[in-house]
Amino acid sequence: METTESPPESTAVAASIENNTTLDPSVSHSLSPPKPMEINDSTTEPKAINDSTPEPAPEPQSQPETQPRKRRRRRKKIFTDMISTTASRIRALRPNPKPSAVSAVSADANFDDSPSGHHRKRRGTSDLSKEVDIEALIAISVGFPVDSLTEEEIEANVVNQIGGAEQANYIIVRNHILSRWRSNVDVWLTKDHVLESIRAEHKNLVNSAYSFLLHHGYINFGVAPAIKDVKSKLSDELPKGSVIVIGAGLSGLVAARQLIFLGFKVVVLEGRARPGGRVRTKKMSGTDDSVVGAADLGGSVLTGINGNPLGVLARQLGFPLHKVRDICPLYLPNGRMVNSDVDSKVEVSFNKLLDRVCKLRQGIMEEVRSIDISLGTALEAFRLVYKVAEEPLERMLLDWHLANLEYANATLMSNLSMAFWDQDDPYEMGGDHCFIPGGNERLVRALAEDLPIFYNCPVESVRYGSDGVLVYAGGQEYRSDMVLCTAPLGVLKKGSIEFVPNLPQRKIDAIERLGFGLLNKVAILFPYDFWGGEIDTFGHLTEDPNMRGEFFLFYSYSSVAGGPLLVALVAGEAAVKFEKMYPVESVNRVLEILKGIFSPKGIAVPDPVQAVCTRWGQDQFSYGSYSYVAIGASGDDYDILAENVADRLFFAGEATNRQYPATMHGAFLSGMREAAHIMRVARRRLVSATSQKAYYTNHEIETNDVDPLFETPDLVFGSFSILYDPLSKDMESNALLRVAIRSEKTGSGSTYLYGLIQMKQAMELNSLEEDVNRMEMLTHSFRVSLVGRNGLCNAAESLIGRIKLSKSALV
Ligand SMILES: Cc1cc2nc3c(=O)[nH]c(=O)nc-3n(C[C@H](O)[C@H](O)[C@H](O)COP(=O)(O)OP(=O)(O)OC[C@H]3O[C@@H](n4cnc5c(N)ncnc54)[C@H](O)[C@@H]3O)c2cc1C
């Protein structure tokens, strides 16, 4: 809900806000109507860096250490030398040459690079090596380590043995599948397609890697028509249970889509009247719609495009991305531009201070692990010791950099943990920072399409137990097997949702320890672009250090908003004070600053067409902007927030993502992660239910005439053994199935269950990887119930008779 006030007659200052009456963070104020004037046509076309061309491989060289004006983060290291040591392996994985293809190049070096297989090329070793390197780089950009498995992969048992040759080959196959799909994200990549470029004897690795990447949402995800089409066809085949998703932000939307694909019944309960949560694009316009613009009031910049799943969505939807240009002039309070020498000098000093703090903390952490102080305190101490920025101008510049850090972390320097504030740096997405023209809500709309979302449905209470979950929202009761809570950390801190029983103490402590900070924005639509379209950002210095975050950075959205739009950021202490100010007062303050910068250049600042001030701290569905590592907290707390409770209650959202917190892509990836997690738990529950049934049906049987027959089975895979009908070769003839179930209750190794299936079904089971998949196919697709020896039907008994006869004849 949004409060919009009619514009005052003469001046913008008269507008006011109804305090605390807004459910939505933004309060929009139509100020004075636009005066007739010519539209300055200097806006540049958005630079399409991500159109239909395949995603470029990330640059192997690491980027410069510092990224002025951006959120300062250290760059991820890319171990190119380690990558190339794996290159030789690829030769053993590629298909053999056709017998007719005679070449001086090693047969192993053949590689079919076309999806259709029509254009076979012969590759030299160095080509292949380069290709493997590129595939590895793409995998790294998506978040996979270069020479080891992720925890998710280990949990999914992608290889039989950790660390051996099988693992090394698996990694190459996994990287190949990933980059294959990333080269054309508009189509559904099939396993057969992958097998065209991997030798048949490695089919098991392809099965394993393909199934992992598919179920964990690393391939074939998104909103391309072909992907949605195949997903909807596959989705309803295997009902796995039901899940209520709390929240229709990025994490909730992504999880809901993936869960539906994985076969769950899903309902999304959203407190607001719209999807997107902290991604919100506000359409702004004047009274006559002659000027319009789209302002992202929440998440706006895709911070690193390499491997970014939101970049994939943009490609699928055909949205060209606009690279945020690095040029960012800084202006003094008197409107003059900061001298570039002083600017660079202070920036270098600032980065040195940060590096010194990093070295100091290494020493401290080795000595006493529990000590933590604020990053602000540590930096100030070093500043005094090294006499940095003692001149007023330098001090102002340093404060500007500190404000930039306070923006990146959405909190004051005095709240940030010196020890762990940047714990996510090594994982940072590489590549350009980008905007999506028209705003990020375009992605949200595509993700929300066709999902069962109940809006205006704030969840009040969640009761969970061994039988399932009850959710109370908007006077209604909802039941499901599991719940995925994506409510922001601010909401969890506030205790707006009651959990019965209480959340585990360890989670409650992590919720308290982690910080949830504040960043606010003022978006102003002007009648024309008076600041010039060739830059995307400019900064403004403030004399009062306590207010250094007040409108310290301006984003120009002229290139992407569809109109002349400026967004001023309010960070640190100023962001907190800002929420108590009247919006008109804030807008006037922004205008004053703009006039101070542009009037001396002879450029008049026109009256705004419309202005919007955010209030993320008062928003009852977020109570802040995004998470940060507060003093005393650490990266572990993100993991604890992500832990499920009793296999019934699951958590996603940016504050559950240790590697990518506080970001839109972090939220996206956490949704995918939890969908896969829920799937794993549902499968485990299925297997354990079957094994309990096995115990109760079987443990009274003393003698078993069937097991000796299985000493020489016709087919064995995993825990499954098969005996065929000795009198028939028909694929539809009956076969006797025995499944070994490990039962902890019996304490005596395996218990056996039996079933009657067809010979062709036995083949189909054999073609699957992992017993959980086979069990699923058996129960859901073939609808076969396993029974104890005494529960077998007449047809099975007569088959057993025939098998006994034929085996005795062989003796
Ligand atoms: C001002 C601002 C600027 C940002 N800038 C950037 C940026 O430039 N780049 C970037 O990558 N990220 C940025 N972010 C962060 C990014 O927007 C978030 O990390 C991300 O959108 C969070 O998604 P989520 O799904 O975790 O949570 P949310 O989007 O908050 O989704 C949670 C959902 O739960 C709903 N909900 C809450 N309580 C209840 C309840 N009781 N019952 C039912 N529903 C409930 C909420 O309404 C919401 O829809 C910014 C955020 C803000 C606020």
Automatic annotation (TrEMBL):
Residues 1-127 are annotated as: Disordered. Coiled coil: none annotated. FAD binds at S251, V459. Residues 129-230 form the SWIRM domain. It comes from the Eukaryota. The keyword GTP-binding does not apply. Pfam families: Amino_oxidase (PF01593), SWIRM (PF04433). One of its GO terms (cellular component) is nucleus. InterPro entries: Amino_oxidase (IPR002937), FAD/NAD-bd_sf (IPR036188), Flavin_amine_oxidase (IPR001613), Flavin_monoamine_oxidase (IPR050281), Homeodomain-like_sf (IPR009057), SWIRM (IPR007526), WH-like_DNA-bd_sf (IPR036388). Its cofactor is FAD. PROSITE patterns: SWIRM. GO terms for molecular function: polyamine oxidase activity. Keywords: Chromatin regulator, Oxidoreductase. One of its GO terms (biological process) is polyamine catabolic process. Pathway: Amine and polyamine degradation; spermine degradation. Residues 17-31 have a biased composition (Polar residues). Belongs to the flavin monoamine oxidase family. PANTHER family: FLAVIN MONOAMINE OXIDASE (PTHR10742), LYSINE-SPECIFIC HISTONE DEMETHYLASE 1 HOMOLOG 1 (PTHR10742:SF381). This is SWIRM domain-containing protein. It comes from Buddleja alternifolia.
